[in-house]
Amino acid sequence: MSFMKLRPVLSLLITAGAVSPAFAQDLVIRIGHVAPTSGGIAHLGKDNELGARLAIEELNAKGLQIGGKKARFELLAEDDAADPKQGTAAAQKLVDAKVNGVIGHMNSGTTIPASRIYSDAGIPQISPSATNPKYTRQGFKTAFRVVADDGQLGGTLGRYAVKTVQAKVIAIIDDRTAYGQGVADEFEKGAKAAGGKVVGREFTNDKATDFSAILTGLKAKNPDLIFFGGMDAVAGPMLRQMKALGITAKLVGGDGICTGELPKLAAGSMADGQVICAEAGGVEGEQKKGLDAFKEKFRNKFNVDVQVYSPYVYDSVNLMAAAMVKAGSADPAKYLPVLAKTEGYPGVTGKIGFDAKGDIKNGALTLFTYKGGARELISVVR
To answer: Which InterPro entries does its entry note (predicted)?
Structure first.
């Protein structure tokens, strides 16, 4: 059919509403998101994904203009099951789909190998939760994170355990993942630098459920504090077995165990104040009002509470969109330099700015404990 014959058909379709002229002029922007939405920590991955979905929905409602065109954002969500191989497959899938940017991954063990794929494709990546220092120390100009790294998180917890908790005898267990081992290494450095005595270092894996041999061996050393580098799906059963063995030591961990699900996973085996954990982020004062408002909006929208990092995902999506608006382009090569120069972006998780490596400047940590089956704030530290 010639174009002259086709033109009346197109006009008819447009008139009938089958093709909207305005819609045809929209700038479609694809944002990738990757997290484990299956497996033992699926509740955390789904929390992250919901943060992305909320941000995308709100961006589309605002009707942003980028380079003179109305921007229409689409979310391409992938599941990496916290598995490095599945993580790189998901990353390649998003690259092949020509996404304009990626938010994720959640775990350091998937974020680090995926970051090379995004770097090779020139696609900006903001991780809302990967804390292993290696992620931003590979020299990739496309890698950013909006939370403090393990050096800050683990080191702060190590010093806190010795100086504030006044732990005399410390044992360490990690799950051998990039995150778990990394944060445990930094905790050990911080504890020893503060004068702490580490009497044992053991390891398990991120799918383990039986820790009786490890815990029985550590019980003989009578620790008053056990640090666990890993996630809540493992920490919960560990707390149950600690109670069964009569181990009353405090359990300290990073953001992986610092979740709303931990008391349920521990099934009533956690004494008030027994667990101390740190979240790699934090707001206080007037900024807390914005985070509280986000949590209420999130609960009203999805009928679930925020777990840990959905606010950081929400900020990451909005921050990426803001860089595109400022650059006047969603082309990664054009908005990447603008993203890298981010300074003082007003997120619900606080002010966001990046250093030369892509790490957040002046990253905060929030210390929590648990009482009555709920998280209770201890303090925000920087």
So the answer is: Leu-bd (IPR028081), Peripla_BP_I (IPR028082)
Handedness of CA 235, 382, 193, 371 (dihedral sign): negative
Q: Which two tokens stand for residue 378?
A: 């201890």
What CATH number labels 151-279? 3.40.50.2300
Question: pLDDT > 70: what percent of the chain?
Answer: 94
DSSP string across 241-260: HHHHTT---EEEE-TTT-ST
pLDDT band at residue 15, thresholds of 50, 70 and 90?
very low
Return the exposure string of 345-375: e unless at least 16 CB atoms fall within 10 Å of the residue's CB, then b: bebbbbbbebeebbbbeebbbbbbbbeeeeb
CA-to-CA distance for 351 and 19, rounded, in angstroms? 42
Calculate mean pLDDT across residues 211-235. Answer: 97
End-to-end CA distance of the chain: give it in Å, rounded.
68
More confident position, 364 or 63? 63
Class of the CATH-defined domain 22-147+287-362: alpha beta
With a CB cutoff of 8 Å and minimum separation 6, the contacts of 342 are 319, 323, 352, 353, 354
Segments of the chain assigned to CATH 3.40.50.2300: 22-147+287-362, 151-279
Residue 259: how many CA atoms within 13 Å on its side-chain side? 25
The whole-angstrom separation of Cα 26 and Cα 301 is 27
The residue type found at 216 is T
As a dihedral over the C-alpha atoms of residue 196, residue 201, residue 204, residue 210, rounded to 10 degrees, the angle is -80
Q: Report how far residue 238's alpha carbon sits from residue 270's, in angstroms, rounded to the nearest whole number.
A: 10
DSSP secondary structure, 183-240, as one string: HHHHHHHHHHHTT-EEEEEEE--TT----HHHHHHHHTT--SEEEEES-HHHHHHHHH
Query: Tens digits of per-residue pLDDT, 224-244?
Result: 999 999 999 999 999 999 999
pLDDT band, very low/low/confident/very high, at 288 (cuts 50, 70, 90): confident
